[in-house]
Amino acid sequence: MLIIAGLGNPGSKYAGNRHNIGFMAVDAIQRRPGFSPWSKKFKAEISEGELAGEKVLLMKPQTFMNLSGEAVGEAMRFYKLGPQNIIAIYDELDLPAGKARIKTGGGHGGHNGVKSLDAHCGREYRRLRLGIGHPGVKELVHNHVLGDFAKADQAWLSPLLDALADNAEMLAKAEDSQLMNKLALAVGGKPDEEKPKAEKPQPPKPAGKSHIHQARGGAKPNLPTTGPMADMLKKMFGGKGE
Question: What are the catalytic residues?
Answer without folding.
Answer: 19
